[in-house]
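Moderator note: this is an archived Q&A kept for reference. The question asked for a predicted structure of one protein chain; the sequence and the answer are reproduced below.
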Amino acid sequence: PGARRLIKSLRDMGYEFESAVADLIDNSIAARANTVRINTHWAGGDSYVSIADNGVGMSAQDLREALRVGAERDYDDDVLGKFGLGLKSASLSQCRKLIVASRQNERRADIYAYCWDMSHVEATNKWEILPVRSADLPEKVRLHLKETTGTVVIWQQLDRILGYNNPEGEPARKRLIDMCRTLEEHVAMVFHRFLENKVRGKRLAIYIQDDKVTPWDPCVADEPKRKVLEPLSLKVDGNIGRSDVVFEPYVLPAQSMFSSPEAHKRASGPAQWNRQQGFYIYRADRLVQSGGWSGIRTIDEHLKLARIAVFFSPKLDEEFKINVPKMKVAFPAEIRSDVEKAVKAWAKICLLYTSPSPRDYCA
């Protein structure tokens, strides 16, 4: 297909800034990184964003393949990637120039780097990545890869991020700062199980502007007054094998029963209490849906303390209709009626525990 036209389409797959960065963190986890550092560098029209990890890195050949649209690779059951599109579509949804630099050799600081440049593709109409000299990389990128193996993704020409006719202005600078705050909330939620070391064999720390991200657990496991309801496991026959879908329902404590006012405020989540009720759906321990009832019921003030963690394997991606940005899912048709029955039962229990009498809750 024509490069000039199709590469523009890759920019419009539905990524927001925070979901685009999250897709790159998926790649870092797959590369066995235990630290990811995200930084924005303000310089007006020359501003850039970098996402650096300390994973195993890539050879020059592997890097070229990773930058190919629809990259060929095998995905294990617990790997967060899927389509071979995320690195390119997520990045180009935010910028016009994508540079990826990587170091694989532990003994020598051999750095390989290539870029997708929208201006070059538009001028040549070719699917062509360009080599980048190590000396032309930002100094912080070179320093990072001199110290460790890993990969650094650099977004330049931030037309979608800055979004102003005057990228040099104060509104553009403030927008970049605000986006970092939103990003911190998002990755704290999406990767909280990794940040809490709850995923076997995968420890992870994420830093944004050198500040360590504190995980946000929607089901507040540290709150002693949280009510744990009976879990449910449903089997689904997928195209690539049978797998379990596990539901873990909870009723969060009433405000007066939280361990502190600060804990209650934090538990409300990025979208606040009412909109944070419902399903928290995890694919390979990575959150892909945060709240909402997936069309099974509507938002209800009386159920604002009901949260249900749902876990499924990438084996069931087709059945859950997972999309490229990994932000939308739907329950498989064969279990939907069972989920509806379970939600009705859990809702009744939630209403019981959130009745006006505190004695009912303590009982």
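Archived answer notes: The CA atoms of residues 175 and 331 lie 36 Å apart.
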